[in-house]
Amino acid sequence: MAERPVHEHIRELSDSLVALSGTVLRNFLLAIDVLQSLDTDRAREVKDADRQIDDAEILLESQCLSFLALQQPVAKDLRTIVAIMKINDYLERIGDLSVHVVERLPEIGSGLQRTYDFGSMGMKVGEMLKKAVDAFAFRDDGLARQIDMFEAEIDLMHRVIFKKAMASMKEPAADIDQLIAVLSLSRYLERIADHAVKIAREVVYLVTGESARQKDNSYEKLIDSLRN
User: Measuring CA to CA, which residue among 204, 79, 60 is closest to residue 132?
Assistant: First the structure.
């Protein structure tokens, strides 16, 4: 690895992350489509794709660690690798949550689909995720900053669904299992939106160096340990 210029390695790692982000986005949108159509057969496609996402995430993390150990980058190069590793982790979590969405299909019927508008919420979350991954691909901190504007809207959608489901649970004929599934689905979508926000903030950090980063500094500790 040391025989090639550092910037070439970083470009390859960035390209791998962009490719992974595209796979994660497509799989999430497929999960939303499956949720709307209640097509249990296509749910298997989401689960199969997630296994590929897991493999790609593990490989990319390994490549980043090898790069850090051999190159010991500083300044902007170090920021780039740290951002790639953190975004890689967020993407893997989004992949897992997409699987959780389709795993709830047996508990969701067409009646609940009409009562709770998961389609609109899912598409809005998908829009957030696309903007976040595009912001990384194009190193566009302006686009990344737009993601925060969506967060309040998703939180409101989540609260509306939560209040409606909780009210329905008080009814004598309520199907508690179905309503718990409703709450879980809303929570999964809200968490994916949170991860999109975290990706966007990593992009801002990468491009500008601004310290609007999450409190989790596990990767920075790992890098310090590699230097010792």
Answer: 204
Task: Decide if 49 contacts 23 (C-beta within 8 A).
Answer: yes
148: exposed, middle or buried (Cβ count in 10 Å: 0-12, 13-18, 19+): middle
* Domains within the chain, CATH numbers bracketed: 6-227 (1.20.58.220)
**b/e map of 94-106 (b: 16 or more CB within 10 Å)?**
bbebbbbbbbbbe
pLDDT tens readout for residues 75-133: 889 999 999 999 999 999 999 999 999 999 888 877 777 788 898 999 999 999 999 99
The token pair at 87 is 């975004």
Q: Contact, 185 vs 118, CB < 8 A?
A: yes
